[in-house]
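REQUEST FORM: STRUCTURE PREDICTION
Request ID: SP-0412
Submitted by: Lab K.M.
Chain count: 1
Length (residues): 181
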Amino acid sequence: MRVAVLLTALALSGCGFFSRTKSTFYSLETTPFEGTRTAATVPIAVEGIELPPGLDRREIAVRAADHTLEIRETHQWSGPLEDMVIHTIAFNLARRLPEGMVILPGQAKPSGAVRPLYLTFEDLSAGPENRFVLDARWKWGTAGPASHERIEVPMSSLENAEVVRAMSAALGALAERIAGE
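STATUS: Completed
RESULT:
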């Protein structure tokens, strides 16, 4: 009987070994805009983005000094990163352009002309230094030349909340530059 009780106690205490660590979820934030709204004549719609391979994932990833990615499995984005970036860029643009000049995610496109925006990110990551790097090419429509932006945001650390803050700031700066064109 004693052996059975001891084995049961050991088995129950061992179950904690197999339990999953709880994940923490993060979302991007739009950035405030205090300036004058840029004039626009045709509504803009973010039609597509391409994220860097390896970074388009649910987990937060930080670049390490040896050219590897540190995948923080229990620190995750609250949704697909591509959707979050599109949402953040669109709402940042809406803050910087006249009312109704940005077709927000989920909104129906008007029957008139729409200016499609395509973004390709070469880099969208923190580390290995305490900075966040956004390196992107963007263009209106599928033809014509692309504009290039490289934005670096200093960070106090590579902690997850700081990575999220810096990424939000970098996307806000990119929207500011796009709206300026």
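NOTES: Residues 30 and 92 are 6 Å apart (CA to CA).
Reviewed by: T.R.
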